[in-house]
Structures are given as structure tokens and as C-alpha cells.
Structure prediction request, 227 residues.
Amino acid sequence: MITARTRLVALIGHPVAHSLSPRMQNAAFAARGLDWAYVALDVPPERLEGALRGLVALGFAGANVTAPHKVAAAELVETDEPSVNTLVLRDGRIQGRSTDAAVLDGLPAERAAILGDGGAAAAFRRALPQARVFSRRGEWPPDLGDADLVVNATAERREIVAELAAGQTLVDLPYPETTTAVAARAAGAAVVGGLEVLAAQGAASFELWTGMPAPVHVMRAALGLAP
Prediction:
């Protein structure tokens, strides 16, 4: 139940109805005994700037930013990131951060490749400056023969955008699972799915907002993932 004392966090995107972030973050707030609530706000691109001002005016504690706003939001808030997915609101200021690449911790990435050129891809390019980048507006199709890690940051779910093999790892950002991920797993590649990506970035965002350790097991359970 949201009261006058409840701290609010928003998800800003277009569309947002499909997102599992509210389920995950509200479970995390409850697990830590916080009177916080996470709400999804569908904001078309032409209303983004006004929506960000509204978060400040309404006293929101923070927000997540999803497609198609990650790059545009970075231009409107305090950040040195090329794209942002997490906003921290304090004292009338909006600080932008990116937790999109949190899932990379512990993954081999000596010869990484990134597929896509949107906001999420920009975050992974920042985290993996040595990575080769492939997109339909640049170099395509992808040449992944020597890649140890491949990040699929495209929005394509049905088409196989790249073929992987055993010994390679795919980080597949969309959820539910894409045809690319299904084919990669069948070929013997390791697959880190979109829900794993969401859990990792969500935990990092939770800690930025609250200053508390994220209840990762609770967040994963809310997404149907194993502890």
C-alpha cells in the first residue's frame, strides 16, 4: 500500500507494460522492510524531459531508464556515461548511472563482441572498450569466430542474429529468451539470459538507491531464477 510516506522509484520507458522490474524491485523493498514502491511509467520520447522534471517535483528517490530513452536521458542528467539505466535523485539533482553491464562480473571477456548500437550496447561498449562492435548500421554480419564473449544488445527476438559455438559465451539481453540464445545453447555455447542480466543490473540499482545490500536471492526468486 502506497502512503504519503512511501518512497517512490519509477521505471521510465516506452513501452513498459511487459517489464518484470516492478515485481523484482518491490519484492526486494519488502524483503528489506522498506516502505518503498516501484512503479512503471510509460513515457513517449517527446515527454522524457518533462517526466524527469516531474520525478524531482514529486520527490522520487530514483528511477530506472529503459528503451528507447537510455541515451537521451544521459544528455538530460548529471553523468559521464554515454547511456544511463539508473537515476539517483537527491537534493533536486538527478545523477545518472549505468548498471547494465553488472552481469559481466566474473565472465571471460578478453575477446568480446557486441551486437547492436542502442543504449544498452553503449553501456557495454563503455564496460568493454576492447570489444568489436557489429550493427546493421555499421559492420554486419558479425564475425564472431575468435570471440570468447558475445553480447546480444539488439532488440531482435525471432531472428538468429549470430551463430555461436561451444567455448563461447552469449550474454543475451532481451527476455523472454531469443531465438539467438536457443540456437547458441543448442550449439554448445554458454548462455547468460536476459533475466540474469535484469537481476544483476536490478541488484546494482537497488544498492545505489537505498545504500543497502540487495537481497539478491529474493530478486532472483521474483524472476523465477534459481538462487
